[in-house]
Please model this.
Amino acid sequence: MCPFFLTTYCMGDTNMRYLKNILLGAIAIFLMGIGPFFGLNERSDKTRSSYLILCYKNDILVGAGSGNHFKIRDEKFILTAAHVIDTCDNVRVVEGNQEVFELSTVIVDEVTDWAILKPEKDLLLKPIKFYRTKPKLGMELDMVSWPSDYGMVYTKGHLAGSQYLSYYSQMFCWLGSSGASVFAADGSFLGVLHGIKVGYYDPRMPPQLLNGICLVRSLDTISDIEIYKVLKAYDGGEARYINR
Model:
């Protein structure tokens, strides 16, 4: 029997490489299994938490956008853009298996353009722990959204600039991407996608500044504690509007 310290000598270099590959594979599988308990696969959770949001008026589909499934402590919610749902009397979310479930509108900020929705039942996709990033010019960004006619799309870019309650991200976005959460590379939250066109003219600023730039709105008008308290106390009824 070969002693452990003579394993390489007894087995030979080729067999030893095979053994190392097997051990590394076993370790990877183990980490995948325990990852959800320690946040090791936060980025994969972020990708799976993206939802297609449908806006209905009198049972007629009048619009669609994107949203993401988050949690603060034990409260789960969908975050999207306020303009995605502003004409709706009924908001619904599409699960991966094409089942559609209704959402209750809990908090809306029409000025900053974000909205928090509460699922009326547990959703299949695991919610992401909500934590905010510290913005840094040039930092890598990404998002998962549901642009019209494209299905789910993963997009990467960079933080190109900022101003009060807004960020400018250099990435592609399309009609239907509105409401998608934009993340830093480590999975922390930056803001909600507001701009849905690329290179459009805005009379308030030179058009070249918006060429290839998407506008992202922050959630700095509300704290995590406030979000949690409103979600915890919500038992149906009218949504809470801020900055209206």
